[in-house]
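HUMAN: Now follow token order:
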Amino acid sequence: MKLFDFRLLATRTLGILCICLLAATAAYPLLSSKNDSCAAVKPGMIDLSACTFDKDSTYTLDGKWEFYWNQLLDPSNTSQADGSSYISVPGSWKTWTQSDYGRYGFATYRLQLLLPEDSESFALKVNNIRNASQLFIDGKPLGGSGIPGQTLNTTEPRNQPYSVTSPSVNGHAEIVIHASNFTYDSGGIAESIRIGTPEAIQALDKRNSVYDIMLVAGFAFISVYFLGQGLQRKEDYSSFQLAMYCFTIVLYMLTHSEKLLFDLSPSISYEWFSKLQLISGVIGFSFVAGYTYTLFPALYSRIFQRITFAYSIGFCLLSFVSSIRFYSRASSILLIFSLISIIYTFYVMLRAVLKKEIGSFYLLIGAIAAIIFTLSLTSNLVLGTGFYSIPPVSGPIFILAEGLFLSARHAHAYETIKQLSHQLARKDRDKDEFLLKTSNELRTPLNAIINISLSLYEGSGGSLSSSQREDMRLILGTGRRLAFMVRDILDYEQIKRERITLHWKQVDIQGIANIVIEVFQFLNIKEDIRIKNRIPPGVYLIEADEHRLMQILYNLLDNALKFTDRGSVVFEAERREDIISISVTDTGRGIPPERLESIFRDYEQVNEADSLESGGLGLGLAITRKLVELHGGSIKVKSAPGRGSTFTFAIPVSQPAPATAEPESRELLLTPVKPPPEAFDDDWKYPAIPLPQYNGGGEAGGDAPRILIVDDDYANLKALTNLLSLENYTITSIRSGKEALALLAEDRNFDLCIIDVMMPEMSGLALCRIIRKTFSPLDLPVLMATAGQQLHFNESAFRAGANDFIHKPYAWSDLKGRVKTLVDLRRSVAERLSSEIAMLRAQIKPHFLYNAINTIIWMSTRDNEKTRQLLYDLSHFLRGSFDFSNQETAIPFEKELELIEAYLSLEQARFGKRLSVQYNIEVSDFTLPPLIVQPIVENAVRHGLMEKIGGGTLILTTSRQGGNIVITVADNGKGMSDEQLASWMLEDYRSPSRQGTGIGLKNINRRLLKQFGHPLLLARGQDGGIEVHIRIPWKDEVS
């Protein structure tokens, strides 16, 4: 049982707020009447000296004014005028003369004003003087509307609000107004004239104009909205009636208050302006009556509705063919009839509320708002009050209430239809639910079967005989087919329930086809079939969901391989106008003509034996067709039995971005590793869009792990950067494989590389394979990422050299754990390298010290100077070898050379003429990692030269070759056998075996690979022995 009905609570709360707002609106004139209590009103004079004139206060000049009928007095000489009387302002002069003709004529209004002594100036706001007027203050003409005259021909009618400003002289002012009316039913000052400071009057003008504009714009927008609803639901006349009522309100607001229509169309004649004024008021009530009738035809009298409509249309037609004098005299009768219509409409709405009609609560609010709105208009027309004497909220509240009422009715109808739809779909859903649950339950044990079978096939349980391997291959293939069936069922249910959301982006078909082919090269066990991709790179671009497009190609290729025993499967594409067609052609068995249309239906196959032979349910092509249709395309097949099949689907082409979207582009040159030509196109250009970066070490740099993210999707780059920045990693973002290789060629100090599998031109798999040519899995771990859910992507990624694999969307805990594991792995390897350097420093064998000391003792009895030099060399060598606190990652070559010279000096003193040394140093102003050359020199002396009876010569050479420094350590000693040399040259320098736990040459080789991408090169010398070559980039900043 529901404790709270939040919808009912929200409805009542909104209703209470609207009612309170309407009550405050109705009470506003009473609460604001205190503004004029400071004025002392006498016939012909108003004393405002006790009032406060500030920027916020204005006062009305209501009272008895001097009135001179059929006279236009000279404003500069009014003291000699006679025939004066008094008339109430605001008001019409037709009540002053008891004659039917008194409504037409001309007159002069005169008023004496007493103002506060401290007031320097004041302003007047004139809203409505029928139908021509001119205002004078202290005899000076300051403003007017139209031209007042003494006859119809000399009068130019125009009734437009205006404001005037005048200085205050000794706190006294005389106001004179000339007015004439020969066209309208009533003449004179019809609305209160307001006085205040210029700032206050200007603020009043601005406020009224803002009110007008807001109401006009608001009602116009709502009119279009309800008109659109009415046109969409042709049987819904209520929305159309409400839209037309809103339109009449727009017209009414344009011709009243500040009369914005004069500003929008200055040339409009007064006669047409007056007609629009009356028409907008009269016809609006007929639309309200029609709206109410369409809502409650059983409660609203059809006869009354027709009468209302008839008199409104008749009056409008009459206004077009008659003069203002005629139809303005009928305005009072029309006003009374309109009030009767509103009262009857309110009565009908009240009855609907009492009968608890759907949304009746909104009707009650709307009815109250309509009454207040009508009273406001009546007050303005009859009593001459200001148009905004009541804040203009009742009209918008009425429209809001009626809109909510219509929404409530539509929501109720929708809920009813929804319940019926649920009842009809329940049985179908129960059927699908059983199939879906069964598939989900099968997926986990199937994965276990496949993984265990694969491990046994790979030899985890020992070697298998040929028959056992064939059986395991059969088990593995059967398990995969069953997994495909489960996947198809799950995808089919997702599509059927419309739960698939496409993520559109520009996709290169060639790259997607390459990835699909690469996956199948791992899966394909038919050696007699070749898969070819004849789609050129960068030519065929479409707007698609790249992962669903890959699923389409995957299904088509899978279908082709199922029914092709030998031959080939070919991917091709062509463009015709704005459509790109992609075809998959096989040389298989073909399809009978009568089955070409049915194979795309659910659970359809070519013949009954297909399901047993291929392990499918016949859902693959049905899913493919639905995915193509979701992309706005179509699919067809062309086939004949025994001649193979061609499946072709067409998708709209992607429009290239405008030139301004790519203000910059760059062409990259990759060094030192050049990928194969088919990997990417050298002319590929990327827009210079700022990519998300993050410096986890702050401004000072720090030692935060560095991560390189490669993804062509900016949103994915931004998401990964934001997530990983929480762990304080330093993030570098790249949008293509080309840029990634260029960056890695210059900067090899990254702790992890996260690569998206699907990227244009160079896929993530291709990029990973190129990276593995210069980086081992321990030197630069690679985490592959994709949103694709196809099976066996993991195997393809691992075969390309990835350390791990993760699916999008990322689970933060999973992503964080995988990244931390790989970063820690790389950091631990780096720490081990550092510890190996320390071990190299510590590898001073006791027999070396013993032999060196004996040599020095022997030399001390023969040559004291030579003895001192040997002691100095031994001291220098030991300092360099035992400097464990030295954490420098780069040292000058001169420092390394000093250590080498000290070592060789001691060895030459010991071995005498058996050891000869030559230095060919062409360049020495460069840096290199510590303990790179000295261990190689020591190895050459100990294991090369000294193992040869006659000794030999060691040659140390440095030279520049292009952009590299080449250091060569050559000897003519014992050398290496052909097998040893071939083993060193053929062994993968990046393999864990070469980079194992040993140190010495292995450590040096690994550090060179990690830092520069160049391994040690060993070759046989011309005089025997071995030459070891070290290649270091020239002027490279070693870090």
Q: What stands out?
A: Residues 96-101, 608-615, 655-689, 986-999 have pLDDT under 50 and may be disordered. The chain has five domains: 38-196, 207-374+390-415, 502-652, 659-838, 864-874+899-1033. DSSP finds 26 helices and 33 strands in the chain.
